[in-house]
Structure formats: structure tokens, C-alpha cells
């Protein structure tokens, strides 16, 4: 009996959703950061075996700030993922807090007739008594179909396999949605742009990481050259942000480029020449054409 289906991964920002999807398919497809709003679009990771195909959907966290069209779009991405899912993973890393955001998650889940698994992440950081308190605080609020504590950064963590067993139990019978060798829906250019943005998130702070995005302008053929040339454009909203991003004598932009190049070389297994440019595009987060240009489609119907 072959099973297949969609598994939506939701939760607050910084609970480890992207790290979890990378662990579930044993490959990095989603960038990670301790900063909020790292994931902006639905990232699909696919795990296929002889008896199942799991299609995991990494979603943006829910944000209180909806003053930007980008944030509204991110919320719609999460709702769409929940609608399409056969199984929902609610990822948490602390006790339930009686806040509007926490309540919003549970209110959302109550609207869907889906199998819902509570995933308590970062178990490597807590004693068992703390994990039990986290679990109890949530199961008192919601009737979950299963509860699994995990550590998504620990590759030897058997609880990842336990989580997969629960997912397999809850999925319907079906056929492959994707060819068995496909691991993600993210194309090469998008993934490279995300690796560059990951370094911006790491090295810069406050509003700058959230006010920036990356476009791949040009990439030379990978298979036909020893060195792959990549030209990327970083969009930022204000001139003073551009100065900080570039840094004194270009040092910050150089640092971002060096670290991003290392990751891209490891992924592509090729020597890379990475050329980064910075351009001010005012209010791009509220511009539907700018959002479409970076591959984000908007539909509020």
C-alpha cells in the first residue's frame, strides 16, 4: 500500500520550521536564521520511499505586522498551505502563551478537519520535565492526533523517524505527485538567491534584513564551464540601508559575498564567481510588481 500527501509545517517564527524540513528530507532546501520572517514563500520538500511520498510545505510564520503587502502575502501562503494539507505539523519550542498570536494558531487549526501533530522542537535544550510542561500546556488547549518531541538539528535523533511514522499513519493512499528523484520545488536561481539572503539575515540587523531581497540577474551554464559566473542584485528600500549593507569600503557586501559563495560552491560542486550589486527600490514590499519579480504571486480572493 503506497501513501502520499501534503504535510504543512506551521508555527511561530524562530521555532525551527525550516531546520525541521531540512532534517525531514535530509537535504538543505530552506534557509535558516534566528531572525523572524526568514521564510517568505511556501518551500516544498519531498521525501520519497518505496511505500510513501511525503510532500512537506515550510510556511512563513504568522506575523502581527501586516502593514506590508509582503506580510499579507505571507499570511495567505500559510492559509493556502493549510487548505491543501492532509496532515498539519504545529511546531512549538516553549509553553503555550496566552497571547493573540498563539490563540490565532489554535483558532486556525480548529477550522480544518485535518490530522494535526504537535511537534515540540529543540528537545536537546530541555530536561524531560520541561518538555512535559510544554506538551501539557498545549494538549490542554487542543486535541492533537499525536505529539512528538524532536530535535531537528540532531541527525541521530530517532524521534524524526517516529514523526514520520505518525505522518505515514495519517496520510491517505495515493500515487506519487512528483518523480521520485525530485527533492524540492525550488529552482536553482531561487535557491541561490535565498542562500545570499541567508547571509544578509546573518550579518545585518534591525530592519535591513527584512527590507532586502535578492534577484539573480545572470548565471552562466553550470555544466559547460569550470567556473560559474553569477550576477545577483540585492534590493533595499532606503539609501541609508544601502550604505550599511555595502559597509565601509564595501567590507560588509564583500563578507556577504564570500560566505554566500562558499555555500553555493558546496551546493553546485563548482567554482563560483559571485558578483553582488545593491539597488534602492523604494517600498518594494508594498509593490505588487516588485513582489512578482522576485517570484511571489499574490492572490487575495
TrEMBL record:
<feature type="region of interest" description="G3">
    <location>
        <begin position="58"/>
        <end position="61"/>
    </location>
</feature>
<dbReference type="Pfam" id="PF07650">
    <property type="entry name" value="KH_2"/>
</dbReference>
<keyword id="KW-1003">Cell membrane</keyword>
<keyword id="KW-0547">Nucleotide-binding</keyword>
<dbReference type="GO" id="GO:0070181">
    <property type="term" value="F:small ribosomal subunit rRNA binding"/>
</dbReference>
<dbReference type="InterPro" id="IPR030388">
    <property type="entry name" value="G_ERA_dom"/>
</dbReference>
<feature type="domain" description="KH type-2">
    <location>
        <begin position="196"/>
        <end position="282"/>
    </location>
</feature>
<dbReference type="GO" id="GO:0043024">
    <property type="term" value="F:ribosomal small subunit binding"/>
</dbReference>
<dbReference type="InterPro" id="IPR027417">
    <property type="entry name" value="P-loop_NTPase"/>
</dbReference>
<dbReference type="InterPro" id="IPR005662">
    <property type="entry name" value="GTPase_Era-like"/>
</dbReference>
<feature type="region of interest" description="G1">
    <location>
        <begin position="11"/>
        <end position="18"/>
    </location>
</feature>
<dbReference type="InterPro" id="IPR009019">
    <property type="entry name" value="KH_sf_prok-type"/>
</dbReference>
<dbReference type="InterPro" id="IPR005225">
    <property type="entry name" value="Small_GTP-bd"/>
</dbReference>
<keyword id="KW-0472">Membrane</keyword>
<comment type="similarity">
    <text>Belongs to the TRAFAC class TrmE-Era-EngA-EngB-Septin-like GTPase superfamily. Era GTPase family.</text>
</comment>
<dbReference type="GO" id="GO:0003924">
    <property type="term" value="F:GTPase activity"/>
</dbReference>
<feature type="region of interest" description="G2">
    <location>
        <begin position="37"/>
        <end position="41"/>
    </location>
</feature>
<dbReference type="GO" id="GO:0000028">
    <property type="term" value="P:ribosomal small subunit assembly"/>
</dbReference>
<feature type="binding site">
    <location>
        <begin position="11"/>
        <end position="18"/>
    </location>
    <ligand>
        <name>GTP</name>
    </ligand>
</feature>
<dbReference type="GO" id="GO:0005829">
    <property type="term" value="C:cytosol"/>
</dbReference>
<feature type="region of interest" description="G4">
    <location>
        <begin position="121"/>
        <end position="124"/>
    </location>
</feature>
<keyword id="KW-0690">Ribosome biogenesis</keyword>
<dbReference type="InterPro" id="IPR004044">
    <property type="entry name" value="KH_dom_type_2"/>
</dbReference>
<dbReference type="InterPro" id="IPR015946">
    <property type="entry name" value="KH_dom-like_a/b"/>
</dbReference>
<dbReference type="GO" id="GO:0005886">
    <property type="term" value="C:plasma membrane"/>
</dbReference>
<keyword id="KW-0963">Cytoplasm</keyword>
<feature type="binding site">
    <location>
        <begin position="121"/>
        <end position="124"/>
    </location>
    <ligand>
        <name>GTP</name>
    </ligand>
</feature>
<keyword id="KW-0699">rRNA-binding</keyword>
<keyword id="KW-0694">RNA-binding</keyword>
<protein>
    <recommendedName>
        <fullName>GTPase Era</fullName>
    </recommendedName>
</protein>
<keyword id="KW-0342">GTP-binding</keyword>
<comment type="function">
    <text>An essential GTPase that binds both GDP and GTP, with rapid nucleotide exchange. Plays a role in 16S rRNA processing and 30S ribosomal subunit biogenesis and possibly also in cell cycle regulation and energy metabolism.</text>
</comment>
<feature type="domain" description="Era-type G">
    <location>
        <begin position="3"/>
        <end position="173"/>
    </location>
</feature>
<dbReference type="Pfam" id="PF01926">
    <property type="entry name" value="MMR_HSR1"/>
</dbReference>
<comment type="subunit">
    <text>Monomer.</text>
</comment>
<feature type="region of interest" description="G5">
    <location>
        <begin position="150"/>
        <end position="152"/>
    </location>
</feature>
<feature type="binding site">
    <location>
        <begin position="58"/>
        <end position="62"/>
    </location>
    <ligand>
        <name>GTP</name>
    </ligand>
</feature>
<dbReference type="GO" id="GO:0005525">
    <property type="term" value="F:GTP binding"/>
</dbReference>
<dbReference type="InterPro" id="IPR006073">
    <property type="entry name" value="GTP-bd"/>
</dbReference>
Amino acid at each position: 500500500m503506497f501513501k502520499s500527501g501534503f504535510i504543512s509545517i506551521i508555527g511561530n517564527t524562530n521555532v525551527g520550521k525550516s531546520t525541521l524540513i531540512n532534517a525531514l528530507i535530509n537535504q538543505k532546501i530552506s534557509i535558516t536564521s534566528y531572525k523572524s520572517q526568514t521564510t517568505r514563500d511556501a518551500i516544498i520538500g519531498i521525501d520519497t520511499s518505496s511505500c510513501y511520498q511525503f510532500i512537506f510545505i515550510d510556511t512563513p510564520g504568522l506575523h502581527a505586522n501586516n502593514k506590508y503587502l509582503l506580510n499579507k502575502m505571507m499570511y495567505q501562503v500559510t492559509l493556502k498551505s493549510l487548505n491543501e494539507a492532509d496532515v498539519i505539523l504545529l511546531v512549538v519550542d516553549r509553553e503555550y502563551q496566552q497571547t493573540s498570536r498563539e490563540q490565532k494558531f489554535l483558532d486556525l487549526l480548529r477550522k480544518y478537519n485535518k490530522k494535526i501533530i504537535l511537534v515540540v522542537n529543540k528537545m536537546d535544550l530541555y530536561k524531560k520535565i520541561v518538555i512535559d510542561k510544554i506538551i501539557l500546556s498545549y494538549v490542554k488547549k487542543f486535541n492533537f492526533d499525536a505529539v512528538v518531541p524532536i530535535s531537528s538539528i540532531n541527525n541521530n535523533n530517532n524521534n524524526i523517524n517516529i514523526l514520520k511514522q505518525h505522518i505515514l499513519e495519517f496520510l491517505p493512499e495515493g500515487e506519487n505527485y512528483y518523480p521520485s528523484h525530485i527533492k524540492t520545488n525550488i529552482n536553482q536561481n531561487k535557491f541561490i538567491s535565498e542562500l545570499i539572503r541567508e547571509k544578509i539575515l546573518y550579518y545585518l540587523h534591525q530592519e535591513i534584513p527584512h527590507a532586502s531581497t535578492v534577484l539573480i540577474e545572470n548565471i552562466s551554464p553550470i555544466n559547460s564551464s569550470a567556473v560559474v559566473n553569477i550576477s545577483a542584485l540585492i534590493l533595499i528600500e532606503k539609501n541609508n540601508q544601502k550604505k550599511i549593507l555595502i559597509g565601509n569600503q564595501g567590507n560588509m557586501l564583500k563578507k556577504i559575498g564570500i560566505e554566500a559563495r562558499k555555500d553555493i560552491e558546496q551546493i553546485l560542486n563548482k567554482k563560483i564567481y559571485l558578483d553582488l550589486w545593491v539597488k534602492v527600490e523604494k517600498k518594494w514590499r508594498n509593490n505588487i510588481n516588485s513582489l512578482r519579480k522576485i517570484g511571489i504571486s499574490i492572490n487575495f480572493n
